[in-house]
Amino acid sequence: MKLQPKNKKMLLQAALGTIPSDMVLTNGKVVNVFTGEVLNADVYIYDGFISHVEYDQVGKDLKANKIVDVKGQYVIPGLIDAHVHIESSMMTPRNFAKAVIPHGTTTVITDPHEIANVWGVEGVRYMHEDSENLPMRQLIDIPSCVPAVPGKENAGADFLAKEIAELAGLERVIGLAEVMDFLAVIYGEDRMMEILKVAEDHGLYLQGHAPFVTGRMLSAYLCGGPRTDHESRDTKETETKYRYGMNIDMRDSSLCKNVPEIMAAMKNYRYYDTLCLCTDDRESDDLLNEGHINEVIRVAIKNGMDPIDAIKCSTINTAREIRMDHLGAIAPGYVADIVVLDDLTEMKPSQVYYGGQLVAEDGHLVVEIEELVLPLETRNSIHVKELTVDDFRLQAPIDSGMVKVNVMCFDDLYSSATKVMVEELPVKDGYLDLSNDSDLKFVAVVNRYDKDNIALHVVRGFGSDHGAVASTVSHDSHNLTVVYDTAVNALVAANRLKEVGGGMCAVEDGQILHTLELPIGGLLSPKPVEELSKDAACMKEANRKLGLREMENPMMRIVTLALPVIPEAKMSDLGLINVFTKEMIPLYVD
Length: 590
Known about the structure:
By secondary structure, the protein is an alpha/beta fold. The chain is built from 15 helices and 29 strands. The longest helix has 18 residues, at 113-130.
């Protein structure tokens, strides 16, 4: 995809100075992402593009209709998020834009596979329509894995090559989103080969997702086509992928904070040309109070990255990764997406320009974003059968005594990785009894797409010590997931989310502590970031009351419990899945 000026001849004349540019930013210190220099310069803008950068005669003979003195501040390209799910902010695309533009973000590459799992092609079209005519650029990658692992979970849609071809015609589609079913790529499964081919035939770049994949399996994955990865979680994994020529999208999300481990690897390398920055999943409270890509830059700097390198990784590197010409630099012929700021380490913009227009100043949006209410926003997406207490009780193969159970265990409180351990657990009156071990919880995944199936299992190390936590934000199929101590608490939480059309709920002793209502697809709220952030803060406090106190963002703990592309074992509405073999793991050991 190329971003072209409306009238190239007029842009040429502005570059030559034969006609005045629309505006010039004078007396600034331009960060040059090609050379790594910081130089005094005047930046000329004509019809949304940079027409000229004057390094020699700064402040002299300024040929522009409007002169803006930036008073010695730094001038950098608009920031680009290499990979984000807007749905994880729990805001609509328009409200998301209001939240991130003041932080200096002018472009995001968004993967709407959360809402695609709920509403299919219609959901992707909704995200495209709601992000029209914004003072930022929301580029879309087509979801590649809906559901994440076919045949092992039930979602609201199923994407094949036909759906990819249909969505490739949308104006701002540029890529195929993270190919999460990495085993299907590695072993050349027909369904995935067809999806990859249709994406390549439409000129889309292929975004990857390969957690813990190394060696020959990584070679096969790269030969399959995907070239990027935001799932590097430790130094060794990063080293292998970077040496193999994979683009690393260094992630700092509300859930996974991988910058320290990745930077420990990157310090050994001379070149950062294939390193980018991304947020992946960042919720409203973090966007409002910490920031967006500017916060990832701050974290990278704290972990040893030079500020200019961090800016390069969040601008021109990302533009090249997504094959986007004329984006990501302060240079002639590039789009005039520009951020002005006092300090390269604090990364607090004083001005943000999008296409040469001032859109934010001193942390506030200065342009209007039209309010929209689209038909999909009023539709209920929660279709769950009538539930009873018995639906959440886990029947055992014996009446009493001890039984061996394949327990799903989290590695720690800060990771979404899990393994399976065999434990002997007590049975009382024919049902599994976890009442004597507060670290053990029941987990239920309830299908919410007009199917009756409910999968029950046992989880250790989730983090809560009592009560029930429920969520329809449950990557990626977004079925209704509940982690609970008693069936009564689980029923109260599940019924509450049915009632409000989805969201998150915490229950203690049969009483609702808080409900975060997300009526749009069970994923999004119509509230702006300021209101939603307060609601989210209340949800976090309710979760902490149930024992989730040690993690920074307890609200996000439940969201990847049913994501069957994050090793080693995850839940779905069909049961527990071995991520590496795609085989179902029985609850009880024979």
